[in-house]
Task: structure prediction
Amino acid sequence: MSAAISFHLNGAEVTLEPAGDEPLLFALRNRLDLKAAHFGCGLEQCGACMVSIDGQPRYSCTLPVSALGGCHVTTPEALADDPVGVALLDAFEHEQAGQCGYCIPGILMSAYAFLKSERRPGRDAIVAALDPHLCRCGAHGGILRAVERAATKLGGTDR
Result:
């Protein structure tokens, strides 16, 4: 039996008893009822499972819960509670940036972490930040426009 791990999840402290090397994604979906992050490839190759950990986008499909002690984890469910998340959600809706939507939560989390640290990104920087994600629907143009729209909206604000 593993020792309990405490971390901050969407602003609240949680304590979990890790089940072996249980990935964070499985704990989020099955034990904490947070379903927005999706299982895609399970190999850190598609980004559907991306969450923000201590301000950095991380694949939750392979990250064990046991590695989270003291970390601050943000999932897509918390985006509506943060000005950067709200700007992204509004921009994605305005640009109709998703088609099937399966990859969008992971892309939003990478864009969220990126825009939290980058005030005025150019398109090349946005492309680089979203490069780890696969979208098979071909919605890339709308996704890039949405992140640019959110960045423009946030450009003059203190993040």
Remarks:
- The mean pLDDT is 94.
- Helices lie at 24-31, 83-95, 104-117, 123-130, 140-154.
- The beta strands are 5-9, 12-16, 50-53, 56-59, 72-74.
- The first helix runs from residue 24 to 31.
